[in-house]
Specification:
Helix content: 55-70%
Distance between the termini: 52 Å
Order of helices and strands: HHHHHHHHEHEEHE
Number of helices: 10
Largest sheet: 4 strands, antiparallel
Number of strands: 4
Strand content: 5-15%
Strand order of the largest sheet: 2-3-1-4
């Protein structure tokens, strides 16, 4: 493989993939297994194998990943699969290390399976989410989820959740229904955390505002909220009249204030509010500049 593309960012990605695998392996070895919780995806299959054949999940993970890695090479490309091979190795290594070390003991929370399932879901989702956010996978169902995300636009969290449910059904072969129900909580929390970590903390709201008094509304937005905005040229579908649509991104906490501003100018204005995930730019991922409409070029 040609490594001329390697940069400092790639080194950071490998570091975060390593950290994510360590967290996920800790969740499996120290929380899920000691408390009788199943897991989804390939990890859940390795737990079934562990129960019936007493094979360390770290070893079975390596073996079962071989055909899935071959699929990944076809759909995800060499760079992603290099990260996948690295992630698969790291997960297998940490699964073995956490199970063999004697410094930190398992967390025996069988008296409170709800707490166990929440802890396992949060840690597993955080670990896998970090791996996904930095362009890696841990092999197994992660590869299938990434292929589904690339080919069909299904989010990684949803793809993993579907596969988790299928594996949990198979886990009824060695676990009772009571533990499987708590394992469903693990899978749900895990899927939500994966999407949250991947999308990043910079969540915001995107608004489309249609009003004949758009200039006055825009001026209030600029002077009161100090948010930049964009005019979009549009045409009415009924009368075919030309319109200006205001488009802007704001923090969720600013939505009520903005609604009041709009109503004070035009109580019949059309406003659409949608979620904006991981907003990058001035005022969100770096310091916002102060400016006013009087300084803009018309």
């Amino acid at each position: 493989m040609n490594f001329k593309w390697w940069t400092r960012d790639n080194s950071l990605e490998l570091l975060m993939i390593t950290l994510g695998c360590a967290i996920y392996a800790f969740s499996l070895d120290m929380i899920s297994i000691p408390n009788g919780l199943a897991d989804g995806g390939l990890s859940g299959v390795t737990l079934i194998i562990r129960y019936f054949f007493n094979i360390n999940p770290g070893i079975s993970t390596l073996i079962l990943n071989i055909p899935l890695i071959l699929i990944g090479f076809r759909y995800l490309g060499k760079r992603v699969m290099f990260y996948t091979l690295y992630g698969t190795f790291c997960l297998s290594l940490f699964l073995i290390l956490w199970s063999k070390q004697t410094i930190i003991g398992p967390l025996p929370l069988k008296h409170d399976l709800l707490l166990s399932s929440l802890a396992a879901g949060v840690l597993s989702g955080l670990g896998i989410g970090l791996v996904f956010r930095y362009n890696g996978t841990t092999g197994g169902s992660d590869i299938i989820a990434r292929v589904g995300q690339k080919k069909f636009g299904v989010s990684s969290g949803k793809g993993i959740l579907i596969m988790d449910y299928l594996v949990l059904l198979l886990s009824l072969s060695y676990l009772d229904f009571y533990h499987i129900m708590y394992s469903l909580i693990v899978s749900y929390v895990l899927a939500r955390l994966i999407d949250l970590v991947q999308e990043g903390p910079n969540r915001a709201k995107a608004l489309f505002i249609i009003s004949d008094q758009y200039e006055e509304i825009a001026k209030l937005i600029d002077t009161t909220l100090e948010r930049g905005l964009t005019y979009l040229n549009a045409e009415g579908g009924y009368q075919n009249d030309k319109k200006q649509i205001i488009y802007l991104i704001i923090q969720p906490r600013e939505v009520p204030q903005l609604k009041r501003l709009i109503r004070s100018v035009d109580d019949k204005a059309f406003v659409s509010v949608i979620d904006a995930h991981e907003v990058i730019g001035e005022g969100f991922s770096y310091q916002r500049k102060r400016y006013h409409m009087s300084l803009r070029k018309r």
